Amino acid sequence: METAYAGIDLHSSNNYLGIINENDQILYGKRLPNDLSKVLMALKPFKESLKGVVVESTYNWYWMVDGLQEDGYKVHLANPSAIKQYEGLKFTDDKWDAVWLAHLLRLKILPEGYIYPKEERPIRDILRRRTLFVRQRTAHILSLQSMITRNLGTRMSGNAIKKLTLSDAEELFDSPFLVSMAQNNIEAIHFLKKTIYKIENAVLSEAKLRKEFELLLTIPGIGKILALTIMLEVGDIGRFLRAGNYSSYSRCVKSRRLSNGKKKGENNSKNGNPYLSWAYVEAANFMRRHCKKAQKFYQRKEAKRNKIVAAKALANKISKASYFIMRDQVPFDESKLF
After folding, report:
1. What is the SS3 assignment for 223?
2. Rounded Cα distance, 254 and 265, in Å
3. Integer Cα distance of 81 and 209 in angstroms
4. H-run or E-run covering 209
5. Alpha-carbon distance 331 to 172, whole Å?
6. Residue 97: left (phi > 0), alpha (psi -120 to 50), or beta?
7. I need a surface site. Which of 138, 141, 195, 282 has the fewest CB within 10 A?
């Protein structure tokens, strides 16, 4: 039986399955509904000859990859942001995309994503949802802060706004409409605060830091939530060959394209993990408050450029330091970082 390779172009309600042989001849091509039983039925005649099945890493890949792996297929998760198609093509469609994935697998040049272990995925995803709620709470705090400054001419700190009650809104404003808006913000802030704490308690009680990640707590500015975020987003630190690869994955590296010292364009700035990017920027902001050398480094960068660049530069240093801490299982050493 001839060797075969399969590619699946996955969409929200359907997918296109393409199967080719060693000579890039199409053995099978059909659009299927997002029904695992029908996908498995289509693959069954080729199961013994299939070298692998490529699934495009879209927002809804979990069910497909899990189902194929449980049925005994070798699954590869394609990284769409790193896949480059032949630029001379005039027309492409779902059939071409599926066949192209299989073609890249056959040539052994498929850019692959990391298939996160199924059993650990839910706890990682709920911690990601916490980030969403934190941003929403911040939006309500800034909205109320702006309203107070606009109408009263005074500025109230974020911590003070978090402590406001519904009755405080009635004392702050004389207009019933302003009172109503303020109370809406206050209610949302309190609700989101409870939701965030509930998620944190659930994660802290269920997830335990592995040995290589416990040492992250020795970095000034990284507490349990940030350490857990890094652990759950990284998975296996061994999948990164060098500190630079990890820093790039954490979005701590510039996406500029240079030639002869001049900027010629931008590469894909969204390639990488946004949650690790957030975690290291948070760590940078905390570290500069608790570490004098970090504060001096931040101030030098800020004087040359601006606060955003300074925070990102410090985040980059922390990400590279944490790579060696996790890989070599050693505690944080301030003298090596600065």
Report:
1. coil
2. 11
3. 31
4. none
5. 49
6. alpha
7. 138
Domain boundary among 107, 137, 155: 107
For 92, counting Cβ atoms within 10 Å of its Cβ (0-12 exposed, 13-18 middle, 19+ buried), the class is exposed
Instruction: Say yes or no: 14 and 80 in one domain.
Output: yes
pLDDT digits (tens, 9 = 90+) for 170-201: 999 999 999 999 999 999 999 999 999 999 99
Pairing of strands 262-266, 256-259: antiparallel
Q: For residue 255, what are its two tokens?
A: 């996406």
Helix axes 307-328, 292-304, angle to 10 degrees: 140
Q: Is residue 112 part of a domain?
A: no
Q: Which pTM does this prediction carry?
A: 0.84
Determine how many CB atoms are found less than 10 A away from the CB of residue 199. 18
Quick one: tokens of 226? Answer: 């940030």
- CA 250/CA 247 separation, integer angstroms: 5
pLDDT at 92: 74
Per-residue pLDDT tens over the stretch 17-69: 999 999 999 999 999 999 999 999 999 999 999 999 999 988 999 999 999 99
Number of structural domains in the chain: 3
Taking the mean position of all CA atoms in its chain, how far away is CA 218?
24
- Complete DSSP assignment for 261-299: TEEEEE--TT-S-HHHHHHHHHHHHHHHHH-HHHHHHHH
CA dist 239 and 244 (Å) reads 12
Do residues 294 and 311 make contact, with C-beta atoms less than 8 angstroms apart?
Answer: no
Give the pair of three-digit tokens for residue 43. Answer: 């693959």
- Paired strand residues for 26: 20
- Kindly state whether residues 65 and 166 are assigned to the same domain: no
